[in-house]
Amino acid sequence: MSELDEFRAEKDDFFRHHPQSPLTPAQKRIFQGLEYFPEAPNLRLEVKADELPEKERFEMQTSTGDVQSYQRFGRFRFTVEGQEVELTIYQNEHGFFLPFVDSLAGQETYPAGRYLEPEPLPGGHFIVDLNLAYNPYCAYNEMWSCPITPAENRLKVPIRAGEKLFHE
Which residues have a Cβ under 8 Å from the Cβ of 65 and sit 6 or more positions away? Predict the structure, then answer.
C-alpha cells in the first residue's frame, strides 16, 4: 500500500468513526468511503511562487455568507494536459491555503472547488500535491461554512487528482 493509499484509508476511517467527522450520524451509517482519482505522480509539483510585492488583504466569501480574511501570498504556474495554468496561494494565521476549481466541477469534482495546504520550502518554493486535493466539509454537510474559491483560481482544465465528488 502506498503512502497515499494509507492516507486515504485513514481519512475514510476518520469520516466513518470520528466525532469531528463532517458526516451526519445517518451518513456515517451508510458511508462506504470517499472516491478518488488514481494517484497522478505528475501532479505532485514543486513550484516556485512568484511572491506578490504587496500582500493585499482578501476577503473570501463562505458558503454560509460569512467572510474569512486572507492575504494573497503569490502565484505559480504549471502545465496540465499541455495547457499552462496559474493559481494564487493565500495565507492567513493558520498557514497557506490553495482553493481551486477545475473543469470537472459539478461532474466529477465538487462544484465549489477543492482545497490544498501547500507545503512551504525554502526560497519561495512549495510542494503542491494535487493528489491530496480534498473537498471542503460543506460538500458533505451544509451546516459547515467553507470559503468559496475565488474567480482567479477557477481553471479551464481538468485536474484528475485528489478527491472526487461526494455521493451519498
Answer: none
